[in-house]
């Protein structure tokens, strides 16, 4: 009897398959990033795609933001304290505390409120960041109990808050709700939602990672928006293109308590001046441009809709139809792999990258991606977008036909 190569154990075979899938995803992402860097025309070019040298260069000329001859910060003084004061002033709150991450900032805020209200239940959306992206940190680390108000692709309603069948100490609202399509309620809906929480003796916390760009939709300045909540978290990298970091803003007593928990969570970092300087740069240079990005995103969204219709795409959806912020979703009736390949090929062969994000499968022959518009996107006209759509759809058709052969 001839000697045979033993078959791998099922678990080993599964691990090999998973590794292959992981490598395939990494290769696709690396190719997409190369295409993005090589493209001459994009709708957005976020800073995290730059090299270290490119990323650090602007900080050497940041003397207009902060005295660069001052000694570096130590455990949160100096430039970090200056950033905290700037954020509190922009949001109209008594105080603000810098955190190395938004995940930490919100966990701390919510556990502080739970201690004060005596109720560990946090009411939030089923698509909220702590539910989807934080590996159950609220319960596993903070001892809190998330309860889901709704799973609909919109913010909760005042009626849903009033009718929720159990008490909760804090209502957390993500503004905008990213995984539902960067959606926002109307100003009236938001004020009614906050009032409903107050009627139930609950405090309100805003997950405002992208709160900076909500002023256009609400038609209100930042202090008026932030004033609705008992506390607000804001990010320095999602909209402002900083290196990272976040701030928790609210009453001085809450912020002081949060500083204690920040230390306990390991967030009392020795020096954070690069991140703090990049955040100040974002507040100085990007924050004033965000309303223009929102306006341009609406132009791009309309041109995309027109382009898909003209190209004969049987069905497409821009969500929201009129973007609430400078980011929105695009849904198309094709396999995600087909769309991803067409997008990369368009960039590689024409220098125009229309869709730079990941395409997610949402069912057989249905995929979605996110589109964001930043400074580079301001140069696009509606005709530029429609022309890019026509070229992209032609490549999608070629790719789909090639895979069916």
From TrEMBL:
Listed InterPro entries: ArAA_b-elim_lyase/Thr_aldolase, PyrdxlP-dep_Trfase, PyrdxlP-dep_Trfase_major, PyrdxlP-dep_Trfase_small
Region of interest called Disordered, as start-end residue ranges on this chain: 1-33
Cofactor: pyridoxal 5'-phosphate
Record-annotated Aromatic amino acid beta-eliminating lyase/threonine aldolase domain positions: 75-306
Residues forming coiled coils: none
Keyword list, A-Z: Lyase, Pyridoxal phosphate
GO terms of molecular function: lyase activity
Top-level taxonomic group: Bacteria
Start-end of Basic and acidic residues biased regions: 1-17
Entry similarity comment: Belongs to the threonine aldolase family.
UniProt protein name: Beta-eliminating lyase-related protein
């Amino acid at each position: 009897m001839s000697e045979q190569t033993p078959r791998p154990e099922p678990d080993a075979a599964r691990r090999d398959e998973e590794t292959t899938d992981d490598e395939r995803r990494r290769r696709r992402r690396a190719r997409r990033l190369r295409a993005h860097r090589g493209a001459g025309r994009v709708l957005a070019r976020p800073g995290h795609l730059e090299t270290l040298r490119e990323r650090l260069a602007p900080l050497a000329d940041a003397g207009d933001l902060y005295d660069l001859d001052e000694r570096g910060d130590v455990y949160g003084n100096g430039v970090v304290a200056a950033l905290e004061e700037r954020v509190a002033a922009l949001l109209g709150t008594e105080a603000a505390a810098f955190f190395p991450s938004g995940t930490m900032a919100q966990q701390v805020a919510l556990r502080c409120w739970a201690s004060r209200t005596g109720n560990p239940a946090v009411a939030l959306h089923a698509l909220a960041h702590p539910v989807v992206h934080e590996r159950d940190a609220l319960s596993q680390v903070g001892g809190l109990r998330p309860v889901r108000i709704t799973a609909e692709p919109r913010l909760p309603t005042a009626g849903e808050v009033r009718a929720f069948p159990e008490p909760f100490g804090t209502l957390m609202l993500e503004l905008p709700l990213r995984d539902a399509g960067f959606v926002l309620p109307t100003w009236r809906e938001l004020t009614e939602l906050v009032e409903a929480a107050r009627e139930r003796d609950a405090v309100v916390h805003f997950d405002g990672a992208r709160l900076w760009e909500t002023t256009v939709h609400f038609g209100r300045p930042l202090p008026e928006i932030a004033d609705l909540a008992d506390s607000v978290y804001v990010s320095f990298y999602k909209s402002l293109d900083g290196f990272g970091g976040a701030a928790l803003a609210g009453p001085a007593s809450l912020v002081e308590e949060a500083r204690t928990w920040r230390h306990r969570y390991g967030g009392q970092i020795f020096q954070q001046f690069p991140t703090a300087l990049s955040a100040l740069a974002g507040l100085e240079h990007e924050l004033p441009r965000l309303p223009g990005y929102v306006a341009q995103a609406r132009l791009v969204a309309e041109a995309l809709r027109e382009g898909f219709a003209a190209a004969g795409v049987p069905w497409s959806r821009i969500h929201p139809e009129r973007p609430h912020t400078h980011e929105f979703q695009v849904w198309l009736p094709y396999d995600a792999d087909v769309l991803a390949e067409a997008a990369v090929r368009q960039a590689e062969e024409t220098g125009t990258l229309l869709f730079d994000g990941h395409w997610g499968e949402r069912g057989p022959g249905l995929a979605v991606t996110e589109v964001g518009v930043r400074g580079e996107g301001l140069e696009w006209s509606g005709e530029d977008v429609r022309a890019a759509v026509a070229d992209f759809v032609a490549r999608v058709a070629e790719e789909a036909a090639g895979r069916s052969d």
